[in-house]
Amino acid sequence: MVGDNSLLLVDDDRPFLQRLGRALEQRGFAVTTAESVNEGMNALKRSSPAYAVVDMRLGDGNGLDVVQALRNARSDARAVVLTGYGNIATAVTAVKLGAIDYLAKPADADEVITALTRSADERAAPPENPMSADRVRWEHIQRIYELCDRNVSETARRLSMHRRTLQRILAKRAPR
């Protein structure tokens, strides 16, 4: 790694945070970890890293706030957003706020490094095993359910779906 290799890693899943942090350190990054938006913002006040890997949904807010603060503090910083809830609207928002890429969890260290170091004109390779249409639908339903504070009736109304149908979907395991 040449030049500034400082990296801020923000994720509220502690085992994932520790595993990815170690893997990135082994690949030459100087990693600072944070488990919340608040911790991430405090880390940015101490120093502005060259790279950041930030989870989208954190216990105390939205990881995009950390991405935006990093971009304001250091315009040349390269940030990647990780999320378990991938959708086009949040991907567009992440890029508008300064992220250079958007990866679905669980992403491994090699995927993260590739995204962080890819040149601006280089296109990302298509995924080897993309989510099935059933899985994308299930993820979307889960996301809306969470946004509605796990209120089945409200979720069903917003999805224009019968409440009992939604309950059956929520009771099943996630499709592959």
UniProtKB/TrEMBL annotation:
<dbReference type="InterPro" id="IPR011006">
    <property type="entry name" value="CheY-like_superfamily"/>
</dbReference>
<dbReference type="GO" id="GO:0000160">
    <property type="term" value="P:phosphorelay signal transduction system"/>
</dbReference>
<dbReference type="Pfam" id="PF00072">
    <property type="entry name" value="Response_reg"/>
</dbReference>
<dbReference type="InterPro" id="IPR047772">
    <property type="entry name" value="ActR_PrrA_rreg"/>
</dbReference>
<dbReference type="GO" id="GO:0003677">
    <property type="term" value="F:DNA binding"/>
</dbReference>
<keyword id="KW-0238">DNA-binding</keyword>
<protein>
    <submittedName>
        <fullName>Response regulator receiver:Helix-turn-helix, Fis-type</fullName>
    </submittedName>
</protein>
<dbReference type="InterPro" id="IPR050595">
    <property type="entry name" value="Bact_response_regulator"/>
</dbReference>
<feature type="domain" description="Response regulatory">
    <location>
        <begin position="6"/>
        <end position="120"/>
    </location>
</feature>
<keyword id="KW-0805">Transcription regulation</keyword>
<dbReference type="InterPro" id="IPR001789">
    <property type="entry name" value="Sig_transdc_resp-reg_receiver"/>
</dbReference>
<keyword id="KW-0902">Two-component regulatory system</keyword>
<keyword id="KW-0597">Phosphoprotein</keyword>
<feature type="modified residue" description="4-aspartylphosphate">
    <location>
        <position position="55"/>
    </location>
</feature>
<keyword id="KW-0804">Transcription</keyword>
